[in-house]
């Protein structure tokens, strides 16, 4: 089962994941699975993590790309608008061998409310 993580707890997760990877090249990944128009409306700024944007519908075709680029043991946090699409993607990644995947519960909406109020609500 994929772990649910509140955005307020993301920084601690990121810091733990960074310690585990042990190298700047191994920054944890925040995988934003929203559509391009949603990314234009609101987006997070990378801060101690690598931001990767792939719309949910493209994940099945690009899962190998993620595996090759980061490895199945790389920490990945999935993000969408409210946490439903990202949960589906997190489960998909876990099913395809990713071992350190979490879902950001409440999505970018909760991120704006808990982490960074400068991220617009939409």
Question: What do these coordinates show?
Answer:
With 122 residues, the protein is an alpha/beta fold. The chain has one domain (3-114): 3-Layer(aba) Sandwich (Oxidized Rhodanese, domain 1). The protein has 5 helices and 5 strands. It has helices spanning 10-21, 36-41, 59-70, 84-95, 107-114; strands at residues 3-5, 29-32, 50-53, 76-79, 101-104. Strands 1-5-4-2-3 form a 5-stranded parallel sheet. Strand 4 (76-79), helix 4 (84-95) and strand 5 form a beta-alpha-beta unit.
Give a quick rundown of the structure.
This protein has helices at 10-21, 36-41, 59-70, 84-95, 107-114, and strands at residues 3-5, 29-32, 50-53, 76-79, 101-104. The protein has 122 residues and is an alpha/beta fold. The model has no long low-confidence stretch (mean pLDDT 94).
Main attributes of the structure:
five-stranded parallel β-sheet; 41% helix; globular; 16% strand; alpha/beta; Oxidized Rhodanese, domain 1; 122 residues
CATH T-level fold name: Oxidized Rhodanese, domain 1
The first-to-last residue Cα distance is 29 Å
- What's the number of extended β-strand segments? 5
Strand content: 15-25%
The low-pLDDT segments are none
- Rg from C-alpha positions? 13 Å
Strand order of the largest sheet: 1-5-4-2-3
The helix fraction, in percent, is 40-55%
> Which class in CATH terms?
Alpha Beta
Write the layout of secondary structure elements.
Elements: E1 3-5, H1 10-21, E2 29-32, H2 36-41, E3 50-53, H3 59-70, E4 76-79, H4 84-95, E5 101-104, H5 107-114
Parallel strand pairs: 1-5, 2-3, 2-4, 4-5
